[in-house]
């Protein structure tokens, strides 16, 4: 495991806690608030069993009773917010000479698709209010638009991302691919940046965040979304993504072990729009993997595959149909922090 220099720790390293930003009726969840709050409650309970929960909310009086009680693992911070996608407005953490350092980027609502004026201030406000352990520094990169869902790390100096997202308009359009790659290598001390040029999910607002398509599960293993139905609108793009994954190599120029994840059968909203269901949007926590499930036949196979990928962790299925109604899932609503941060 990489221990020197700066690097972006993988999600499976020991964590100090996870951030959630709580939904309320002033967020886009308002119309389905009774559906989505139980999902957040289950997430909160599972996190608190294992590590600290950094909870951002507009008003703590709106929280359920079990989050009102005293709990040494629970840290609540009130502040204005637009929405609840902590993966993308939360701080990223790098390890610098063995110690954690927070990174603050600009969040602009996935290329100015949605208002983010309050969400963009959540990380600086948490830092100013002492939410993180004393002595943990934060570096400001607010001149660079970036989201946590756009990057994956294998913990050994290899980053995985998508060109559709990082090269999209209204993020860092003044920068070339070479510029963006140089920035990522410098900030994360990465040896390699691997770009996927194919793959998408209908209903996705993020411009193909990597965490909806392909995820590192170990230094040498990538789990990825695979579609076998030739009549499905995703088939060709995901086939091309698979072919590209087969060409990628790690920091030692060795190919990765590739593990296909099942493709959930199509789920639609009340207007007939397809929703972006994916099993790739799981969250790794201490001792467990929180896995989105959708009440479809592929759920059981997804659980089985996850157990083979993480044999020493409990696989916890979480009904994520309410989350995909707002076009995200479990990983999108959470941000983990390695040991020493919270």
Largest sheet composition: 4 strands, mixed
User: What structural class is derived from the secondary structure elements?
Assistant: alpha/beta
- State the shape: globular
**What is the subunit organization of this protein?**
single chain
By CATH, the topology is L-arginine/glycine Amidinotransferase, Chain A
Radius of gyration: 19 Å
Task: Please give the CATH class.
Answer: Alpha Beta
For the record, give the distance between the C-alpha atoms at the N and C termini, rounded to a whole number: 22 Å
- The count of DSSP E runs of length 2 or more, i.e. the number of strands, is 17
Strand order of the largest sheet: 1-5-6-7
In the CATH hierarchy, what is the superfamily? L-arginine/glycine Amidinotransferase, Chain A
Organism: Mangrovibacterium marinum
InterPro entries: Peptidyl-Arg-deiminase_porph (IPR007466)
GO biological process, one term: putrescine biosynthetic process
Protein name: Agmatine deiminase
Would you write up a description of this structure?
This protein has 342 residues and is an alpha/beta fold. The chain has one domain: L-arginine/glycine Amidinotransferase, Chain A (5-stranded Propeller), CATH 3.75.10. It is 22% helix and 26% strand. It has 9 helices and 17 strands. The strands form 5 sheets. It has a 4-stranded mixed sheet, with helices on one face. A 4-stranded mixed sheet has the order 4-3-2-17. It has a 3-stranded mixed sheet with strand order 8-9-10, sandwiched between helices. Helix 1 links the parallel strand 2 (15-21) and strand 3. The relative contact order is 0.17.
């Amino acid at each position: 495991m990489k221990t020197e220099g700066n690097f972006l720790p993988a999600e499976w390293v020991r964590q100090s806690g996870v951030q959630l930003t709580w939904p309320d009726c002033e967020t886009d969840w308002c119309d389905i608030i009774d559906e989505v709050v139980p999902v957040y409650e289950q997430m909160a309970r599972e996190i608190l069993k294992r590590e600290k929960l950094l909870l951002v909310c507009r008003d703590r009086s709106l929280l359920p009773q079990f989050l009102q009680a005293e709990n040494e693992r629970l840290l609540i911070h009130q502040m204005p917010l637009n929405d609840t996608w902590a993966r993308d407005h939360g701080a990223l953490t790098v390890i610098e000479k063995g110690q954690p350092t927070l990174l603050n980027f600009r969040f602009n609502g996935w290329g100015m698709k949605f208002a983010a004026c309050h969400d963009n201030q959540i990380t600086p406000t948490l830092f100013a209010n002492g939410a993180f352990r004393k002595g943990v520094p934060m570096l400001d990169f607010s001149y660079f638009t970036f989201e946590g869902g756009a990057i994956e790390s294998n913990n050994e100096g290899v980053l995985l991302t998508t060109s559709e997202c990082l090269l999209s308009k209204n993020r860092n359009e003044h920068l070339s691919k070479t510029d963006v790659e140089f920035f990522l290598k410098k900030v994360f001390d990465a040896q390699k940046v691997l770009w996927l040029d194919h793959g998408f999910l209908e209903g996705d607002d993020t411009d193909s965040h990597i965490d909806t398509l392909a995820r590192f599960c170990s230094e040498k293993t990538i789990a990825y979304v695979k579609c076998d139905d030739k009549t499905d609108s995703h088939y060709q793009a995901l086939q091309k993504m698979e072919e590209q994954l087969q060409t990628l190599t790690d920091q030692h120029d060795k190919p990765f072990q590739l593990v296909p994840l099942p493709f959930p059968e199509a789920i639609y909203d009340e207007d007939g729009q397809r929703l972006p269901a994916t099993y790739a949007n799981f969250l790794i926590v201490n001792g467990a993997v929180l896995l989105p499930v959708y009440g479809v036949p592929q759920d059981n196979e997804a659980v089985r595959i996850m157990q083979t990928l993480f044999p020493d962790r409990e696989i916890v299925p979480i009904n994520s149909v309410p989350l995909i109604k707002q076009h995200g899932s479990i990983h999108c609503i959470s941000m983990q922090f390695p040991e020493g941060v919270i």
